[in-house]
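Per your request, structure below.
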């Protein structure tokens, strides 16, 4: 789930000074119930080192409990297209935490981001949708196997029983032990 945005400069839509206030209750529920979870920082392009420090400082209680990820996409990101930006972010975040986050990226930008993630031994979490139609869980989504990644988001209009509304749907290419390796050191 998205937990932080930028370096504390953004407030709006339930986000207060860069932190979604609803995230912690969801994370604490997962911890209390032994559920795997991930937590994500949305890069806004306001300073790579400042953003990495902000993410690390505001999620320190989740470290080694959940899988960290960084969201690198065009919307609301002043640094979009500058592959040195996520490189600097990852260097600083890894220096601070010792954990290598997954790097979330649209498939259309994968070619420019994959080398950066590879230099830092970070897995890729790739978003690519067949269309925008509502769909349920798929164990083998459209275009699967066309490229290597640790996780694949195949819909932002997912539908699951018991939840009314859109959900992002993903497939993680590993078992719980692989997930836990990312949680502990990100490799």
């Amino acid at each position: 789930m998205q937990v932080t945005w930028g370096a504390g400069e953004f407030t709006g839509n339930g986000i207060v000074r860069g932190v979604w206030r609803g995230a912690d209750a969801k994370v604490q529920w997962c911890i209390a119930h032994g559920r795997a979870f991930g937590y994500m920082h949305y890069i806004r392009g306001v300073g790579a080192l400042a953003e990495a420090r902000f993410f690390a400082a505001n999620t320190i209680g989740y470290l080694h409990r959940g899988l960290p990820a960084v969201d690198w996409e065009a919307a609301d990101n002043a640094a979009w297209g500058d592959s040195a930006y996520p490189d600097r972010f990852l260097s600083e975040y890894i220096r601070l935490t010792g954990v290598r986050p997954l790097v979330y990226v649209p498939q259309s930008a994968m070619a420019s981001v994959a080398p950066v993630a590879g230099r830092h031994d970070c897995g890729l979490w790739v978003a690519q949708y067949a269309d925008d139609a509502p769909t349920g869980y798929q164990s083998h989504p459209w275009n699967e196997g066309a490229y290597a990644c640790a996780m694949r988001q195949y819909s932002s209009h997912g539908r699951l029983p018991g939840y009314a509304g859109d959900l992002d749907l993903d497939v993680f290419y590993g078992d719980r032990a692989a997930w836990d390796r990312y949680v502990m050191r990100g490799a």
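The mean pLDDT is 94.

Regards,
D.
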